Amino acid sequence: MSQAQIEGLLMQPLQLYKDFIDGLVGISDSIAAGRVRQGLWQRIDTSHKRPRYPLIAALADENDARNLARNRLLEGFSGSVREEVATLLQEERTGGIHDFLAYLQEHGYSLYRGEAPLATEPFGTEPYFDYVARLKGDPWPDSA
């Protein structure tokens, strides 16, 4: 086995870890926060045909009523209030991902992709720390 192949095998857990953290950063934007910023929770389209399943049709009706109420609520918000509520929702989203990573760390879980293990604290910091750093735009320590 060549030195390059050995280095490639050693780098795989690190790359998997970086891909995992960056993947979480990639899904960190809150759809709900975006809706609040726009001032429209959901367009209500009553022209579409309702499902033939009675329970699903009832659920669709409930969703329409809930979405209409949310639309009306957002209509009453000023731009600054919408922005503040959107910020709260965004913080909850990223906070949930942070807390999930902290839970994994605190309870000794290890991460795998298929059979391949992800690196564990490859930069001497916890995954939730790496997540926040990447979320804020910091480069990976090994690329700086």
Commentary on this structure:
By secondary structure, the protein is mostly helical. It has helices spanning 3-26, 31-38, 54-75, 79-106, 127-135; strands spanning 112-113, 116-117. It has a two-stranded antiparallel ribbon. A hairpin with a 2-residue loop joins strand 1 and strand 2. The model has no long low-confidence stretch (mean pLDDT 90).
Structural class based on helices, strands and sheet pairing: mainly alpha
Taking the sheet with the most strands, its summary is: 2 strands, antiparallel
In percent, how much strand structure appears in the residues? under 5%
Q: Helix share of residues?
A: 55-70%
Over the alpha carbons, how many angstroms does the gyration radius reach? 22 Å
First-to-last CA distance: 30 Å
The string of secondary-structure elements, in order, is HHHHEEH
The coarse silhouette is elongated
Strand elements, count: 2
Number of helices: 5
Low-confidence stretches: none
Mean pLDDT: 90
Record the strand order, biggest sheet: 1-2
Give me the secondary-structure topology.
Layout: H1 3-26, H2 31-38, H3 54-75, H4 79-106, E1 112-113, E2 116-117, H5 127-135
Helix pairs in contact: 1-5, 2-4, 4-5
